[in-house]
Design brief:
Blueprint lengths: L4 H32 L3 H4 L7 H12 L18 H16 L5 H14 L2 H42 L1
Helix pairs in contact: 4-5, 4-6
Length: 160
């Protein structure tokens, strides 16, 4: 049995008709949507949160805590062995590679530190230990002064 050419034309005509209807519906929807568009302020009122709640929600959204102010009289923290190594090796690396950027310099110093044997690292670790001891002594002195200073101020207030 052969398919009649008339049947094929009906299917093709149906597909063409369906395609045309879909296209017209799409175009009519677009025109309706564009005609209905208005500025936001005219059809939807903006929600305004009360000021107190707005401030709280902003702080939570940021997720950052307020930083404590550093005391300028506090002793500086001790350096690690790697930092002593970098301070010593940076000028030498800079002589060898004057065109290095900061990031490249840091990478090179890191590679040199990894390649360094334990005996050579020991020198820098000893420096770090001495610096740590210096920091501990300075911190104890600082705490004693800050407590003593605070106690003296309280006594002066009590006398008045």
């Amino acid at each position: 049995m052969q398919a009649s050419p008339q049947g094929n034309n009906q299917v093709g005509a149906f597909l063409t008709f369906d395609h045309c209807v879909a296209k017209r519906c799409y175009i009519s929807c677009l025109t309706v949507k564009t005609q209905q568009r208005r500025p936001r302020s005219s059809h939807v009122p903006k929600f305004k949160m009360p000021k107190a709640k707005a401030e709280k929600s902003e702080k939570k959204a940021k997720g950052k805590k307020e930083k404590k102010e550093k005391d300028p009289n506090a002793p500086k923290k001790p350096l690690g062995a790697y930092m002593f190594f970098c301070a010593e090796m940076r000028p030498k690396v800079k002589e060898e590679h004057p065109d290095f950027k900061i990031t490249e310099m840091a990478s090179k110093l890191g590679e040199l530190w990894k390649e360094l044997d334990e005996k050579a690292k020991k020198k820098f670790q000893d420096k770090a230990e001495k610096d740590k001891e210096r920091y501990q002594k300075a911190l104890e002195k600082y705490k004693a002064e800050s407590k003593g200073g605070a106690a003296e101020e309280e006594e002066e207030e009590d006398e008045e």
